[in-house]
Design goal:
The protein is of the alpha+beta class and 267 residues long. The chain is built from nine helices and eight strands. A hairpin with a 4-residue loop joins strand 1 and strand 2. The chain is globular, with a radius of gyration of 20 Å. The termini are far apart. The relative contact order is 0.11.
Length: 267
């Protein structure tokens, strides 16, 4: 089912001033509308997801087809992402100095501890996995892969980011979450508040937003951006028990990544 565009999703982004910039931004909104489970979208669905008019969507989809970013399927009157989009993703991953340094260290920790280790970045009001290495002994119902999105407000990854971001951005995001989750907000806001406090005092926060999956996360500030690093396990143990076992490996991993990043920049 198509999801309506949230007008507050751009609350932390600066709009372009020129018509060319606005066209570019709208074209990017078209590409953002494609998510897992929505491989083929027509102009009507794209208009609903982006909040743009059908006439604007029709013009932009044709431009994106010509640019090689979308493929058109006339028989089903829809569009899908083109292979060129995947090549951009590959270029991003292979060109990231953070991933080049972090991935081998994450893999070593995941293997030695038999846990899952992930690295994510904020994208508007969600977190996007850049790397996910899965070694937890107990299989989980949900398999996380690079490029997958998770809610910022519910996850340890997102809450670690909220603890590290600027006050204006955190305030804007919390206002968005309050409107989106009005019924749960009293309890949810308290959980986020405690997570931010935990990051500030202990260096990490913990969450269990899915049954029998516990995750710890810590902010990973770099010259490129502020990422979030996490470890997780599928377990029936309590959050406190998992934190007692995994907080030290998580924070040690963070420091080693930051140390190597600093060494590279100095060299």
């Amino acid at each position: 089912m198509a999801m309506p565009r949230d007008p507050d999703r751009t609350l932390c982004e600066k709009p372009g001033n020129s018509p060319a910039n606005r066209s570019l931004e709208r074209g990017i909104e078209i590409l953002r509308a494609f998510r897992p489970g929505a491989d083929l979208l027509g102009n009507g669905e794209l208009a609903e997801r982006t909040g743009l008019s059908r006439a604007t969507v029709s013009r932009l989809t044709q431009t994106l087809v010509g640019a090689g970013m979308l493929q058109q399927e006339p028989a089903r009157k829809g569009y899908r992402l083109a292979p060129a989009v995947l090549s951009l993703s590959h270029a991003m991953r292979s060109g990231s100095s953070v991933l080049q340094i972090a991935a081998p260290l994450m893999s070593a920790v995941a293997r030695s501890q038999q846990i899952n280790v992930g690295l994510a970045a904020a994208d508007r009001d969600e977190m996007v996995y850049l790397e996910s290495i899965r070694y937890s002994r107990r299989a989980a119902f949900r398999n996380v892969v690079s490029g997958q999105r998770v809610p910022m407000e519910l996850t340890s990854l997102g809450r670690a980011f909220l603890a590290a971001t600027t006050d204006p951005r955190r305030t804007a995001l919390l206002s968005l979450f309050k409107r989106r989750r009005a019924r749960q907000w009293p309890a949810l806001s308290r959980e986020i508040e405690l997570a931010v406090e935990s990051v500030n005092t202990l260096g990490y926060c913990a969450a269990s937003w899915q049954a029998e999956v516990v995750a710890l996360a810590t902010p990973l500030p770099t010259p490129e951006a502020c990422y979030s690093l996490n470890v997780s396990v599928s377990t029936a143990e309590s959050i406190d028990e998992v934190a007692s076992a995994l907080a030290a490996p998580l924070l040690k991993l963070k420091q080693e990544i930051l140390r190597l990043l600093a060494s590279r920049s100095e060299g």
